[in-house]
Amino acid sequence: MNNDYSISILRKRLLAISVAITFLFCFLCGRYLYVQVIWQQELAARALDQWTREIPLVAERGVITDRNGEVLVANDTAYTVYARANAIDDKERTARALSSALSVDEGELLNKLNTVRASEITVAKKIKKDAVATLTEQSLDGVYYSRDNLRYYPYGDLLCQTLGFTSSDNVGTTGIERYYEQYLAGKNGELLYETDLVGVELKNAVAAYLPAENGLNLQLTVDVRIQMLVESSLRETVEEYSPVSAECIVLDPSNFEVLAMANYPSYDLNEIPRNDIELLNSLSRNRMVCDIYEPGSTFKVITAAANVEEHLRGNSSAFSQTHIFPSSRTRSVDSTTVKCWSNHANGKHSNQTLSDALNNSCNPCFTDIAMALGKDTFYEYLSAFGFGRKTGLDFGGEAYGLLMPKGAVRGCDLARIGFGQTVAVTGLQLACATAAAINGGRYYTPHIVRRIYASDGYTEKEIDGGKGRQVISAEASAIVAKMLEGVVSEGSGKKAYIEGAHVGGKTGTAQKFQDGRIAAGKYVSSFVGFFPADAPRYLALVIVDEPQGAYYGSVVAAPCAGEIFQGILALEEGTEVNI
Question: Which of 264, 231, 158, 257 is nearest to 564 (CA)?
Answer without folding.
Answer: 231
